[in-house]
Amino acid sequence: MRRIVLIQPMRDGRVFGRSPGSPYTLMRLASLVPAEIPVEIWDENVRDLPLDTVREGDLVGITSMTVTIERAEQIARRAMKQGAGVVMGGVHATLMPEHTATFAHSVMVGEGYFTWQQLIQDFAAEGIKGMKPVYRDERWADLRGLATITDRVIQMVDENNNYWTPYLEITRGCPRNCDFCTAIRVSGRRMRLRPVEEVVDEIKRRQIKRFFLTDDNFGLNFTTDPEYCAELFEALMKLDLHGWTCQSEMSIAKHPDLLEMSVAAHLDKHFVGFESVNPNNRSSLGGKSKGRADQTVEAIRTIRATGVGVVGLFVMGFDEDTPETFQAMWEFIRSSELDSVSTTMLTPYPGTPFRDLVERENRLLDVPWSHYDTAHVTFVPKNFTVDELRSAYDWLCRKVYGPQQIMRRGLRSLGRYPISK
Asked: According to the 3-state scheme, what is the secondary structure of the chain?
């Protein structure tokens, strides 16, 4: 084996000189490579890929979401043509292994932290002919000691110069079976927790002051593991952090004591999946929300009263949505106390119940995978034509993200979190 090259395909590129988020999964996989084997991380969002240097003896691993799978395929085919062994992993490979297998020697299904090490051994022993077509790991293993990031990788990636927001994982899994979400199918339904001392050690060694949690539903731990959350917050209070953010659900409003502890631990915003203000969509929301605007308003007020910010996440285009739903969504956002908001288009991701439904009903549109970015219409809706849904979503985005609304939310946040803080 000459070396291992781990690649993240282009998505956002650089914004004011840096990429938005660090290649966290590849950092952990690179940390599992034995010290005697050279390993490199190539993030196309940060630099052009020197693909002309790839050749026989290289093991090339590519991670990809559905939205970047077409670029991942281009990279994979070129690397294979130049003689390298190619393995594909990530969300799309886990949910559509048969598709991914058409342009790779091996496909990693599931988390891969154990099967990745096996693949390295197989390639080191026999090269491409030793690579199995599929390496499957869906045991949802305990997170203790799992893929600790090494100093070699920390120095290689140089997060503080190349990325605006380092990523970090503290917990994994989500039992909420929202019919449009891939989380339960990619990370499992059991909530798993990293030992607090390992989290603290990683933050210190990476020398990060801000981070965004990759956890699918960190806020659910307030309900399922409140003692763990309290232990974590007590440990993070002692660190010199500038702030961190996470993904949550509205049930955190039931835990004001933990919310106050989290503020003391430098948590400054929850990205809360309220999902909808249409109660007719509640069966699609996995128990996270009932789609009632009055309950959502009360939750926002309760959470913000503890001193933490709320970013509202909403999905548009459910089968029960109508033109009136878009107007109601705009009225809700305009009058809410949200610090920020994200409205996305319902997307039938592979492996989800919603995709199964639209496929059965022959409503899936023939569009590029790059349209699976939650901003395009990729299916035929029930109560709109495709053009009508696209126009309704564009109208809502122009309203929500107009300069006046952005300024109002920004001033609201500044009033609660002064710059001097």
From this structure: CCEEEEEECCCCCCECCEEEECCHHHHHHHCCCCCCCCEEEEECCCCCCCHHHCCCCEEEEEECCHHHHHHHHHHHHHHHHCCCEEEEECHHHHHCHHHHHHHCCEEEEECCCCHHHHHHHHHHHHHHHHCCCEEEECCCCCCCCCCCCCHHHHHHHCHHHHEEECEECCEECCCCCCCCCCHHHHHCCCCEECCHHHHHHHHHHHCCCEEEECCCCHHHHHHHCHHHHHHHHHHHHCCCCCEEEEEECHHHHHCHHHHHHHHHCCEEEEEEEEECCCHHHHHHCCCCCCCCHHHHHHHHHHHHHCCCEEEEEEEECCCCCCHHHHHHHHHHHHHCCCCEEEEEECCCCCCCHHHHHHHHCCCECCCCHHHCCCCCCCECCCCCCHHHHHHHHHHHHHHHCCHHHHHHHHHHHHHHCCCCC
